[in-house]
Design brief:
With 312 residues, this protein is an all-alpha fold. It has a domain of 171 residues: MetI-like fold, CATH 1.10.3720.10. Helices cover 79% and strands 0% of the residues. It has 13 helices and no strands. Helix 6 packs across helix 8 and helix 11 packs antiparallel against helix 12.
Length: 312
Amino acid sequence: MIKYIIKRLIYMIPVILALTFVVFTIMYFTPGDPTAVILGNEYTEEASMQLKQELGLDKSFIVQFFNYVKNLIRGDFGISYISRAPVSEQLLGRFPNTFKVVAGAMLFCVCLGVPIGVLSGTKPYSLFSNITMIIGLLGVSLPIFWLGLLLILLFSVNLGWLPSSGIDGFPSLILPSVALGANYMANIMRTTRSSMLEVIRQDYIRTAKAKGVSQRNVIRKHALQNAMMPTITVIGMNIGALLGGVVLTETVFSIPGTGRFLVESINKRDTPCVLGCLVIMAICVAISNLIVDLIYAYIDPRIKAQYSGGRS
């Protein structure tokens, strides 16, 4: 198992390097002069040439990329073109806010999606199951930014129950977490329901019922463990999707997080900040996928035996 974890961590390196190369290439060949954005009204040809020399922008594409990768290996994300502050310091100040929003959204997804999906799957033709199917279709169809604006209008403007922007304590996390997690909660609920419907029709479930095992124990001890495998896959995939959706969420709710910082950096052509945000997000997605694989091994001993035997 330890060898498998080390192998997966090593695999992260080429993925991050490939992501860095793609983003760096896009930012480099995007039309426009970043020094014009930095200097603003003070832009002149002389000032632009001097600033390019200071920032290393006068060098070729290959030299700039390898200099960035060399610094990245040492843990240096570079200096922001706009604020002239280290990118790592700016990320450290913003990433905790993003983590809180994503963690709240994931908690909302799992705590509601899994139980509702299980109950709906065990009673497939009931009124509750039909209602949850409608809710699932609505949840998948709602755009994050539109739902966020509706939540602000209802709970902040009209009712005044919750704050509409910023992040200051638990109440300020409720609306962003719901707006970000509603779509993915519906996916988890539908996946859990479909998986549960398939599992409860298996022979070993009928055998357990024939032996007199209660419905509750049949679901908890026999069906749920096997039905959770596809759900865990969806949860792992949703972590990456949540990190992508947090860009819209933080913009709508004016949260000073990594997602909003990424949008501002793209608008300002601040390449080091853009790369820093995306590298951090890529690392989070890779680690979350590794955690999901380890949860697989915990639930299914056959997968753990494959890891222990050196096969991945």
